[in-house]
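ok trying this again, last paste got cut off
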Amino acid sequence: MRIARTISELASARAAFGVALGFVPTMGALHDGHVALVTAARAANMPVAASIFVNPTQFGPNEDFLAYPRTEAADLAKLEAAGCDLVWLPDVAAMYPADGASTILVAGPAERWEGALRPGHFAGVATVVAKLFGQVRPSHAYFGEKDWQQIQVIARMTADLLLPVTIVPVPTVREADGLALSSRNRFLTAEERRTAPALRAAMTLSVARLRDGVAVPAALAAGVARLGEAGLSPDYFALVHAHSLAPLDVLAPPARLIAAAKLGRIRLLDNAAVC
């Protein structure tokens, strides 16, 4: 596995591969969900690159940039074991030069939900991903479906800017009790960890009712009530068009249930296909 820490090292390492290259952008603190992305890329019979960069521009002023876990040695070991061929480890200066003057502005699927709650977040995500695409020059990029809205924002940005990268969603990896894997799960207390699967349970309840023909408001209210019973505080719990993220008042394909809820100081995100 080759490791690059400077633009020149990356260019030299990238030259060893052909046009086809799978890419897994990460912020580190890797878990089995990230490994599944590398595995999916390897299954497509192409070399695989990954990046590790904790991107400051996607964190708000009251968010946990400094507290975000940095576990480089463990991350590199996981990537090597998964069969990753190249890891890009830029510093902030490489990603955001002092004379840089351009940022990608996003609308459409970025406007609601996480976009409304975290102003500037998706502009930071889109900007760093576009930079990584330009640096690594992948043919395919793999993203976990847990961050469903993020995938739609990146897919829209990639299409709008005519970037020659195919965006590949990979199903969410879960614990046995249904909790979606996330780097932030490590911050849950033991009691919170026992409670956290209630988000998935509430979503499963609402999805079942929607598929049974229950009206959208009533089906969503059942899930929100289940969250309240478990002690979770929802930021949103919504049925949306799977790609535009526009809210749906009537069930119509392609529909996705998306949710975010606070449990202590941790925000849990999840989503589920409905139809």
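PB: full thing came through this time. Residues 183-270 form a domain with the Pantoate--beta-alanine Ligase; Chain: A,domain 2 fold (CATH 3.30.1300.10).
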